[in-house]
């Protein structure tokens, strides 16, 4: 019987060639760097844990170098101490910061083109944010802590994935899901894909604004469920039949005055709200604790504030933020961000605050 020769798979071959290149580089310099080989072992373990493979040895080597820089940054930050939060390797460890931001954000500042998202028009006429019993801007008599998750008003975090910059859609849906539960007692997961495909005001997988998205939801008459119109992480033609089926609706939306954490706190005491933030250094690898920077105010990512509180260990006040990077990131898909820092708030969190009304 003829023997059958087994060839390594493409991912295994790429790893073997990568290891060989490290050995060759060490041999040419007269020594093999033990640190390189240990980091290679660590990289292999990370690949196995996250089912990551690459099409060629060249790409594997490039991703190894990115992984090495990220791992060294994570280790150094945690060893340095003095942080109120921790970093850890996660599924994003082979992405540069620039690649990560380009892929996993997607907020568009509508005010740059003069749009006024605080005023919308419905069949009842113009609706101005804060003009009725949904006025969320008053700042007195708010509780010391709020967690809408504990009240059963928050659908668990979802993932926008690496192929669609649609954080704006996830925040729009998250706030409407929570408002619907608060008003009706029914918590249902709504469709982000409906917004990605059908909302003509926004860019689908290429940037968007929750203010514009609220406007579209009102004009459409509501949103259907995620089960009816599931997420595909790419923009396709609008399924108008599904889009016409409404599991939840809103009648308006409003904005909270910027640069006031007291106003944001009063708003969150009433319902989860949409905000935009700058993705600060290290946030890509956040694993727990109260994030306290560094970050600025270049708003690039939309997230949902679902509560606030005080850390029992450190005494640090924080916002509870629901993200759209999956539940393996952060604290099961959430991040706690420092509260009461003044000015625009941590990472610009008070600069663009909006909420749906019903």
From TrEMBL:
It holds the Pfam family Inhibitor_I29. Keywords: Disulfide bond, Hydrolase, Protease, Signal, Thiol protease. Residues 43-100 form the Cathepsin propeptide inhibitor domain. Residues 142-357 form the Peptidase C1A papain C-terminal domain. One of its GO terms (biological process) is proteolysis. It comes from the Eukaryota. GO terms for molecular function: cysteine-type peptidase activity. Residues 1-29 form the signal peptide. InterPro entries: Pept_asp_AS (IPR025661), Pept_his_AS (IPR025660), Peptidase_C1A (IPR013128), Peptidase_C1A_C (IPR000668), Peptidase_C1A_papain-like (IPR039417), Prot_inhib_I29 (IPR013201). PANTHER family: CYSTEINE PROTEASE FAMILY C1-RELATED. This is Uncharacterized protein. It comes from Zizania palustris.
């Amino acid at each position: 019987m003829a023997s059958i020769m087994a060839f390594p798979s493409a991912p295994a071959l790429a790893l073997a060639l990568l290891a060989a290149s490290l050995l060759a580089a060490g041999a040419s310099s007269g020594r093999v760097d033990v640190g390189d080989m240990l980091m290679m072992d660590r990289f292999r373990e990370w690949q196995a844990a996250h089912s990551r493979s690459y099409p060629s040895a060249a790409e594997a080597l490039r991703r190894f170098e990115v992984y090495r820089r990220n791992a060294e940054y994570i280790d150094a930050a945690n060893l340095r101490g003095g942080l109120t939060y921790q970093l850890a390797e996660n599924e994003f460890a082979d992405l540069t910061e620039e690649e990560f931001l380009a892929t996993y954000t997607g907020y568009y500042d509508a005010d740059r083109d003069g749009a006024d998202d605080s005023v919308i028009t419905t069949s009842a006429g113009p609706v101005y944010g804060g003009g009725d019993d949904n006025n969320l801007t008053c700042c007195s008599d708010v509780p010391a802590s709020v967690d809408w998750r504990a009240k059963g008003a928050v659908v668990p975090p979802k993932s926008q994935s690496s192929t669609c910059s649609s954080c704006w859609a996830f925040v729009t849906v998250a706030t409407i899901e929570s408002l619907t539960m608060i008003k009706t007692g029914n918590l249902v997961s709504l469709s982000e894909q409906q917004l990605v495909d059908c909302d003509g005001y926004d860019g689908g997988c290429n940037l968007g604004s929750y203010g514009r998205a609220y406007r579209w939801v009102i004009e459409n008459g509501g949103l259907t469920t995620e089960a009816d119109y599931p997420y595909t992480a790419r923009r396709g033609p609008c399924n108008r039949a599904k889009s016409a089926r409404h599991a939840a609706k809103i009648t308006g939306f409003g904005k909270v005055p910027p640069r006031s954490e007291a106003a944001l706190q009063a708003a969150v005491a009433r319902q989860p709200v949409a905000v935009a933030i700058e993705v600060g250094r290290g946030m890509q690898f956040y694993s727990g604790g109260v994030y306290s920077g560094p970050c600025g105010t270049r708003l690039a990512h939309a997230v949902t504030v679902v509560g606030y509180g005080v850390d029992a260990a450190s005494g640090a006040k924080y916002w509870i933020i629901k993200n759209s990077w999956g539940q393996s990131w952060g604290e099961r898909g959430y991040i706690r961000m420092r509260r009461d820092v003044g000015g625009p708030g941590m990472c610009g969190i008070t600069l663009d605050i909006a909420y749906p009304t019903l």
